[in-house]
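Memo to structure team: turn this sequence into structure tokens by end of day. - J.P.
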Amino acid sequence: MADNKNKKILRQAIYQEGCELKMVQEMFFNLTIMVSFMFIIIQTFHSSMLKNKPPIYRKVYLGAVSGILSVILIHFSIYVGEDGMFDLRHIPLMISTIYGGWVSTLITGTFSIAARFSYGMDTPSMMNFLGVIAFSMVYLSISTRKWNVYKKTTAMLLTTNIIFTLSTNKIISSQSIHLELNTYYWMVTFIGGFVAVSIFESIKKKEKAFAVFQTQAFKDPLTGLNNVRGFQHEVECVEKNGLGRKPFFSLLMIDIDHFKKVNDTYGHQTGDELLIQLSKLLLKNCHPNAIISRNGGEEFTVVVANLTHDSVSKMAEKLRREVEAHLFHTKEQEKIHCTISIGVATYKNSQKNVMTLYQMADGALYEAKKAGRNQVVFSKTSPKKETYSSQQIS
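Reply from structure team:
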């Protein structure tokens, strides 16, 4: 009898150990599914495919894909003992709420409810229906708080877990099973929830850092205008769109007269202040659709399309006069006068590339400097020859 009893105890211990091993495997499998899916969601959520779309597209996408993840997690539930089971369906719902608001929450919740009802219209399905609504309302309420994302995550998981513990206490009669189920549930949900949020936050930070890097790569840090890379990028976009489709296309080369003298007399800090103020004048007086760049030192370019020769001439001359009349203020309360020389080149129904236009404008700028500075000079090229004939218009 004693031997039979010992064998029975041994079989129960082996069975219990096998159940625990299976449960650990299921937990690991669920976490793997969730992490993999989250990575895919985040990568596509921040991809160029959705980045340029209205925000509602991203919210709908996040809600739908998170909803699909919740359906998968419901299918791969984690079993504890013979009677207990749970899943991580609320974590995609939490992610949707934090990063997509009520639109994503509604879509993810609908997926979760529909998936559970597909197993049958029974009591657990109705409890899931009420639970998803309750969790959604609580999550949305917490998401409006001015807390950091990890504090919101903690509050959401605590609320979910407390509700789960209280509800399962009435359903599961065995205290040992209830304790075991909730111990694993709390552990897995906190690990899963924080892993999901951490992945999302990590990729968000990398995206922001990359966006800053892109801005710094294409923008002049002093003036905020395009730098040389930014200018080249804009030029490539213009050429890609086709110059021939533009009835007129112009490029202005602008250079500050005697800028070296300003630096030598007042110092480089004053020279930088002058560059910043000139940039503001360019933005104020050029066409709203103009592409304005600082190409280095005291040299600026303005690229503008769909303006006639006369309109560009007036814009350039207005800009020259505005700078001539402007008093540039320094931090030492000094007032400086300066002038600019402008070389302008215009295409009319031409297929030539922008760099040829750049060379033409540069040639016209040289002529403006040679003629005494503080002038606007237009360059015209023969259809047959790449030679310049400059016409002073000031």
